[in-house]
Amino acid sequence: MKQSQTLIPTLREVPADADVKSHQLLLRAGFIRQNTSGIYSFLPLGRKVLQKVEAIVREEMDAAGGVEMLMPALQQAELWQESGRWASYGPELMRMTDRHNREFALGATHEEMVTSLIRDEIKSYKRLPLTVYQIQSKFRDEKRPRFGLLRGREFLMKDAYSFHSDQKSLDEAYDLMVTAYSNIFRRCGLNFRAVLADSGAIGGKDNHEFMVLSEIGEDTIAYSDSSDYAANLEMAAVTVEYEQRKHSGQKMARIETPDKKSIADVADFLQVDQQETVKSMLFIVDEKPVLVLVRGDHEVNDIKVKNVMNAKVVELATPEETVKWLGVNVGSIGPVQVPESIEVIADNAVKFLGDIVCGANEEGTHYKHVQLDRDFSVKKFDDLRFVIEGDPSPDGNGTIQFAKGIEVGHVFKLGTVYSEAMNATILDENGRAKPMIMGCYGIGVSRTVAAIAEQFNDDNGLVWPVNIAPYNLHIIAVNMKDETQVQVSEELYKLLTDYRYNVLLDDRTERVGVKFADSDLIGLPVRITVGKKASEGIVEVKIRKTGETYEVQKEELTDKLQ
Ligand code: ATP
Ligand code: MG
Ligand code: MG
Ligand code: MG
């Protein structure tokens, strides 16, 4: 592709509202443009990268036995009413009415659509198992669209659904999917973990999230420092508690708030705004866990102490009172000085209320904004647990550490939730009707692109892994007024393209400084500079990742690039 003939609108300045690296660089390097909040266009380079990820996803899905299809994004409300999710999905579902006043949704996910499709087509166990998938835009009216492609309102997802007549068959398909997902994210070059996720009644081993490790991740994961064990906080806590029961005597406490019913009550009880920054510490005082919440960022007179165990609220307005009551010195928002007589069992490492996550970073003062969902289920609230950094890992190897993660994929066993609700049955060997057993498997394709950009960049721009780069080679003609340079760069462009390289040729009449800066920003793996020495048949090769450069005779280029 010749740069003069495509659209790569690079920017020198960091766009004002882009606050993470991937978002900034994808905008600056001309891969994407924002249309409106959470909605993006993929420009030619962005589209290429997306296609690279899609191709890997397709290969691995096909290898796992999936067959590709494409379902409508526009879905009639009746489908969602059948499953009950028209009512329960909440404001994230984009809804609309047609000219006849019939209600529709833009697909946030496709369980309903696929269940109704397969229900109508498949009636016998003999036609199962079946795994179908699609790569398609999804629509979710996210409360806080942010970080560019990482949390959009329209985004590209690969979603797969498997149908089975027995549990064993589902288990097999699930295992294949876990392997496929690991292959996909490995081929994308990502540093990721497959994390056990809490799936309530369904059971932990039936639900994995694939998390790219990243400081800007919105999820906190608990992982073992010396094994493959990794879980989201809820799941880790459940497992820890289970282990605690087995080996009594280990540190474990449970926060219980028996008489609270709604999230407003909870917020009221904790005396926090539902969007407030909260720091927490958990102490053992008189053999009882006590949660200390510090509201706001710096206001020391805002300290609230609550005896959570028996839901008795102890409010202390000033640090002095707090110190007196607890015998601890809560001097500031920073690390708290605690006398040895008091055991700190969780230094900002409490997980409570689903969305209020407090982990621990280097300074031990790690927190997350409180994001309470109004749709928050009371059930969860009755069952609060936590896991502590430094706890023994549930698998017996090493201790628990916390890390931030970006959820790029999610696989889980649905069982018969949708098939029962929507009456998707098959006849079994004995001619009896029974609900199909289902699994579902999602990958955020556009989010994965951003996660790769987040992990692969330096001060000068993007540094694409070879598998993902929009083009393999970037040829820069230094001076477009120099006939030899133009001729050699055209010649190499043709030659290397014939050698099946994907080549981007910068044939613009720009200053060379601009060309180099753009080239670094775009981040193709190899740059070939055609400059003054072109007259001697010599060009310069630069490896984007290492910065290594060398000169080479143009005839030897194809050998050198092997
Ligand atoms: P999150 O917890 O980040 O909101 P989710 O659990 O709601 O994601 P799933 O329903 O599991 O998402 O969807 C499957 C995949 O789709 C996710 O693992 C993620 O990679 C991707 N995804 C979900 N929401 C978005 C979004 N708003 N923008 C981009 N990708 C998304
Ligand atoms: Mg979500
Ligand atoms: Mg999630
Ligand atoms: Mg998920």
> Terminal Cα separation, in Å?
21 Å
| Average of per-residue pLDDT values | 79
Question: Helical segment tally?
Answer: 15
Rg (C-alpha, Å): 28 Å
Small-molecule components bound: adenosine-5'-triphosphate, magnesium ion
SSE-based structural type: alpha+beta
Strand content: 25-35%
Largest sheet: 9 strands, mixed
Number of strands: 30
Shape: elongated
Considering DSSP H and I runs of 4 or more, what fraction of the residues is helical?
Answer: 25-40%
- Enumerate the spans where pLDDT stays under 50 for 5 or more consecutive residues: 200-204, 242-267, 269-373, 375-386
Folded structure, characterized:
The chain has 562 residues and is of the alpha+beta class. 27% of the residues lie in helices and 28% in strands. The protein is built from 15 helices and 30 strands. Strands 3, 7, 8, 9, 10, 11, 12, 20 and 23 form a nine-stranded mixed β-sheet that branches. Strands 16-15-14-13-17 form a five-stranded antiparallel β-sheet, covered by helices on one side. The chain is elongated, with a radius of gyration of 28 Å. The two termini are 21 Å apart. Residues 200-204, 242-267, 269-373 and 375-386 have low confidence and may be disordered. It binds adenosine-5'-triphosphate and magnesium ion (MG) (3 copies). The site of adenosine-5'-triphosphate (ATP) has 15 residues, from strand 8, strand 20, strand 23 and helix 12. One magnesium ion binds at residues 209, 407, 410.
